[in-house]
């Protein structure tokens, strides 16, 4: 039982850390998008006023593409944010209502004690893989944005 409680404690800690990470990353990306949106509005105003400078058109296209990429990236961050929050709440429920003591029974045989913990652990691993993929995507976006 103590082992299952330790696993649950680790799951709650990990999911809470991931929630904070995702919330921070979302906020940073959101501020970048707002900044680019402001720049896009300025360029669009110049183009509406008749300044058909090719550089302005290029910047407008670049800003639109950047905003779309970041919105898509933030969408995945929001999914991870909510997923980690749900996982955190579920882990707390399992922990404090002692649902980890439940045993999976098949044909009147005890198969797996604490199966809910193992299910949560599997989903935590999925969350971990998702975060690694998000970080990888973030690095790719950074490398493209800073390419000279």
List keywords for this structure.
rod-shaped; mainly alpha; two-stranded antiparallel ribbon; 148 residues; 3 helices
Word description of this protein:
The protein is mainly alpha-helical. The chain is 82% helix and 6% strand. Strands 1-2 form a two-stranded antiparallel ribbon. A hairpin with a 2-residue loop joins β1 (103-106) and β2 (109-113). It starts with a helix and ends with a helix. The mean pLDDT is 93.
Layout of helices and strands:
Layout: H1 2-48, H2 54-96, E1 103-106, E2 109-113, H3 115-145
Antiparallel strand pairs: 1-2
Helix pairs in contact: 1-2, 1-3, 2-3
The description of the largest β-sheet is: 2 strands, antiparallel
Low-confidence stretches: none
Radius of gyration: 23 Å
CA-based shape? rod-shaped
Approximately what portion of the residues adopt beta-strand conformation? 5-15%
């Amino acid at each position: 039982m103590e082992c299952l409680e330790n696993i649950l404690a680790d799951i709650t800690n990990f999911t809470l850390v991931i929630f904070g990470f995702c919330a921070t990353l979302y906020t940073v990306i959101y501020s970048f998008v707002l900044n680019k949106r402001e720049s896009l509005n300025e360029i669009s105003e110049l183009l509406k006023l008749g300044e058909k400078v090719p550089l302005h058109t290029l910047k407008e296209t670049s800003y639109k593409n950047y905003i779309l990429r970041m919105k898509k990236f933030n969408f995945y961050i929001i999914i991870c944010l909510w997923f980690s929050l749900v996982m955190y709440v579920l882990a707390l429920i399992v922990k404090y209502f002692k649902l980890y003591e439940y045993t999976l029974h098949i044909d009147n045989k005890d198969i797996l004690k604490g199966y809910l913990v193992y299910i949560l652990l599997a989903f935590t691993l999925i969350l971990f893989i998702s975060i690694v993929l998000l970080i990888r995507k973030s690095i790719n976006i950074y490398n493209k944005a800073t390419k000279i």
